Amino acid sequence: MKKAVVVFSGGQDSTTCLVQAMKEYDEVHAITFDYGQRHKAEIEVAQKLTNDLGIKHHKVMDVGLLNELAISSLTRDDIAVSHELQENGLPNSFVPGRNILFLTLAGIYAYQVGASAVITGVCETDFSGYPDCRNDFIKAMNSALVQGMDRELEIITPLMWLNKAETWALADQYQALDLVRNQTLTCYNGLIGDGCGDCPSCLLRKAGLEEYLNNKESVMSSLVEKQQDA
Predict the structure, then answer these.
(1) CB-count burial class (<10 Å; 0-12, 13-18, 19+) for 46
(2) pLDDT > 60? residue 44
(3) Distance CA 221, CA 99 (A)
(4) By C-alpha distance, which of 59, 68, 70, 144 is closest to 109?
(5) Are 14 and 121 spatial neighbours (Cβ–Cβ below 8 Å)?
(6) Are 138 and 146 in contact (CB under 8 A)?
(7) Per-residue model confidence (pLDDT) at position 74
(8) Using 50, 70 and 90 to split pLDDT, how confident is the model at 230?
(9) pLDDT digit string (tens) for 51-60?
(10) Does 159 score more than 70 pLDDT?
């Protein structure tokens, strides 16, 4: 039996990955992390989505320690999400160590449930400047987990080389475009669906959707080509 663990936030990217995983694996586990995030509503969204999609195994894990250690606009209500980069060249929405922690815990969970894959929606093409969304990081993390647990495990990143328009096309490919558009939470200000329309995450999401809707045939063709090359 093929089993996978999906790192699931209830956002556009992870929901698209979850829908895809449901088609490709016999048993899918979703794991959501509560780290005291600014958009805490995403946990409720994730719970509703897994229920609606019929996911039988959904674990919400409290990792509040990350909130204490990592100072970011996503962990502090008194820091506004900014469009400007910080002095270190990173956006102030970057949560240092978040994906290191999430993938480590997801890897441990995969070990316990006998899953051969951890799936995450990170993307280097539209990675918002986050260093822990790059392919080199994922490969290093994968190697560390395999060596540290002495067990074969693959971190799978279906969106790594897709732009946002192609990510929308992927959701549409699995007949989940409306679900992803209307029921996921990507907005840094905690608004479901199209969101606030102003934060960096909403702007990226909106631009990708408009590109897909205006150029469906060419975007879908590009997606299929990348899938064939993978």
Answers:
(1) buried
(2) yes
(3) 31
(4) 59
(5) yes
(6) no
(7) 60
(8) confident
(9) 999 999 999 9
(10) yes
What DSSP letter does each residue of 43-109 carry, written as one string?
A: HHHHHHHHHHHT-SEEEEEE-THHHHH--STTT-TTS---SSB-TTSSBTT--TTHHHHHHHHHHHH
Which structure tokens are listed for 127?
């990675």
Q: For tokens 């329309």, what's the residue?
A: 197
pTM of the predicted model, to two decimals? 0.91
Spell out the residues 6+ positions from residue 69 whose beta carbon is closer than 8 angstroms to its own. 97
Nearest to 30 by CA among 52, 9, 2: 9
Query: Residue 55 and residue 30: Cα distance in Å, rounded?
Result: 8
Burial class (CB in 10 A: 0-12, 13-18, 19+), 195: buried
How is 108-160 classified by DSSP, letter by letter? HHHHHHT-SEEE----STT-TT-GGGSHHHHHHHHHHHHHHHTS--EEE-TTT
